[in-house]
Amino acid sequence: MKSASTTTLSPAQSATKEKVASQGVMRPALVLFAGLTLLCGVIYPLAITGIGKVAFPDQASGSLIVQNGKLIGSRLIGQEFSAPNYFWGRLSATSPMPYNPQASGGSNFGPSNPALIDAVKGRIDALKAADPGNTLPIPVDLVTASGSGLDPEISLAAAYYQAGRVARERKLNVDTVRGIIDSLKLQPSLGFLGEPRVNVLALNLALDRQAPAAH
């Protein structure tokens, strides 16, 4: 019975064989890496951006509000209004300034935190000082910050609460102001998510068109 013969490779031959095997594995891996990079990093983003620009041009561009050729803001990010002749939005806990999109976030204060209680009391005092004759209950979204700190909208109750003050400061009939609110009312998303609301910036711009504020 003959025994199987074995062939011993020299160190140089072994190194060559390992190099060939390595190249056989690396080449398809590099091709796959390059292909996926091109597909996922270039083609897919360009395709999605192009579809967005065509199908949803306003949203894809940031939902920007332009007036008289000037960029005023975005429907997606709130702005600070404190003058009594404007509607006020939700509090913003972002720093170093309110509604800072680069520092989105809430205060993270718990309901028993004295800092939160003081902030709510301060906003209540400001609302009552600006409209001392208003006996309506103050909606919670006027005295608390949103989770993002960028919320551009308030509830209809929050808008109606401020209608009397704004009408008085603008020398408008309160029904006219309420009509502006109703004309800009946004329905719940998908018809059932959330509640009816209004965009504060769009509301104040509509007010300025109706009765320009004195500056």
Automatic annotation (TrEMBL):
Transmembrane annotation, as ranges: 30-51
Localization of this protein: Cell membrane
GO terms for cellular component: plasma membrane
Bilayer disposition of the protein: Single-pass membrane protein
GO terms assigned for molecular function: ATP binding; hydrolase activity; P-type potassium transmembrane transporter activity
Keywords annotated in UniProt: ATP-binding, Cell membrane, Hydrolase, Ion transport, Membrane, Nucleotide-binding, Potassium, Potassium transport, Transmembrane, Transmembrane helix, Transport
HAMAP family linked to this entry: KdpC
Subunit structure: The system is composed of three essential subunits: KdpA, KdpB and KdpC.
Family the entry assigns: Belongs to the KdpC family.
Job description of the protein: Part of the high-affinity ATP-driven potassium transport (or Kdp) system, which catalyzes the hydrolysis of ATP coupled with the electrogenic transport of potassium into the cytoplasm. This subunit acts as a catalytic chaperone that increases the ATP-binding affinity of the ATP-hydrolyzing subunit KdpB by the formation of a transient KdpB/KdpC/ATP ternary complex.
Protein name: Potassium-transporting ATPase KdpC subunit
Lineage: Bacteria, Pseudomonadati, Pseudomonadota, Betaproteobacteria, Burkholderiales
Gene: kdpC
